[in-house]
Amino acid sequence: MATAKHSFQRILLIPFDHLNTERGVLKKANAKTDLVLLVESERMIKGRPWHKERLFFMISSARHFVAVLEAKGFKVLYFKDKSTQSGIEKAQAEYGKLPVYCAEPSSHRQFAQLKKVGVQFVDNDFFLTPRALFASWAESQKSFVMENFYRAQRIRLNILVEGNKPVEGRWNFDAENRLPPPKNYTWPKRLTHSRDEIDNQVAKELGYQPTDSWATTRSGALKQLKNFLDNHLAGFGPYEDAVTLDDWSLHHSLLSPYLNNGLLTAEEV
Questions:
Q1: Taking the chain (269 residues) in consecutive chunks of 10 residues, what is each chunk's mean pLDDT?
Q2: CATH code (residue 114)
Q3: Are residues 48 and 118 in the same domain?
Q4: CA angle at 213 for the pair 124 and 42, rounded to the nearest 5°
Q5: 36 contacts 174 by C-beta, under 8 angstroms
């Protein structure tokens, strides 16, 4: 039965890789008129052979994001359901047949599934390059070469270029990033992340004890970014391709998970 009285005009569906209040469908959201929905679906959890560390990160990050939205005054529905579609149906059963909006999913499969059930899409601005702009570039290419795209991006975004030429005359330093670490090299201490009640509850449900390697909040992701800039950036270039038994992360940033789920943006990094 639908809730008798409410002021909501839309349901905003948030996929687990859109966890950012300044991007996607939340960018212009109004807490008074927009009802936010996240669905922890069985189809997502059981549809792939996830490593439990990754599954823990995905779910706990989403549940922490709920708390962020609620602190901003949003009404948030977080359903554990068979599928995203059934979660949408449950929300509409409770609040009426409101239109559902979502930023265009990154997954072709998810896009097709949501489009089929009438979800309306807004532009996905989690990527540095809009889909239409990439399509325009691709149409001008005889073949797709990463180096060509990389150079075009540098020029478009004005990153280390003067006019259309790279600063100091070189586009990359790939030949210089393959050094082995010196003997007895000391790697900086890896940043660890503490766990809270939300983390512990997710771990309990999964029957898994997560490592302390990954943050599940934006504040933790920002700390990871700062740690990379302060302690690893200078050594990342020369030892980018190094492999050693002494340390598993070396000077790598460990930022990809946060770029993938929205806790950090490409512009920030």
A1: 79 98 97 98 90 98 99 98 96 97 94 96 95 94 95 96 94 87 90 98 98 98 98 93 91 97 96
A2: 3.40.50.620
A3: yes
A4: 55
A5: no
